[in-house]
Design brief:
Elements lengths: L1 E6 L6 H10 L11 H4 L3 E5 L9 H8 L9 H23 L5 E3 L3 H7 L27 H8 L4 E4 L2 E4 L12 H5 L2 H8 L3 H4 L4 E4 L9 E4 L5 E5 L7 E8 L5 E9 L1
Parallel strand pairs: 1-2, 2-3, 5-6, 6-8
Antiparallel strand pairs: 1-9, 4-5, 7-8, 9-10
Length: about 260
Amino acid sequence: MHKFIAIGDVHADFPLLWEALRSASCMTADFRPTPPVLAGLYQVILIGDLVHPKSQEAYNRLTGLRPFDSHDQEHLLSAAREQITALDRLRQYQEAAPHAVHIILGNHDANVLDPAHLLGTSGGVRHVEFDPARGGVHLPQRLHSWMSRFPREVRIGALQFAHVSPLPAHQFYDDLFYSDRSSKQWFRDTPEYVEMAGLDFGVYGHTQLDGGILLHRDDDQTPRFAMIDALHSREYLEIMYDEVGQPHLSSINVVPF
């Protein structure tokens, strides 16, 4: 029996991430993996998008600048510096237990590795702190190498964790991805994708919903997938997965912290 602790999109809110990991007994006070994580009994899954605060206010909090200005090079340097410090801390945590801490590549992470698209908040703040062509800085090579190794999905039997959806096309963040509205709507329009992919259960992020984590059930009330971009709502997902005999889900719980 393994416990999976799945946490939604971080978007540079690292203090909240540390709080969630400690609440789940996965991180010590000095940012190290706990004994259950080191033993592999607890499997930590971060669903992607470590970088880029979600809003003007989030950039203000990150940098201490009010208002943060994404056209000001000094402001961009401050935003980059704060994220680099936290990413290094997370890298050390993950590298201390690589068998038990898994970080999926989100579209914002991919854009930091290769800033081919101009991303921004709904309020007009540009995510360019790691885009040298637009006044930002290069992601340090140690972090670039680390993030380049992030998988696009994690599968254990018929249990899947991915950033967007079960569709392979949603794991590659190209021009088509950004022009295709299905990446934000599939879970409402075509929730049967999960079953069609041969999955018992899927865990996804990318789309922030009102009300925290969405746990979707089939007509017969069988849990089919969860949308967990809900760190801001102070929730994570806990899954107990029994791998003895025929692997199956033993329990799925939305956990507030």
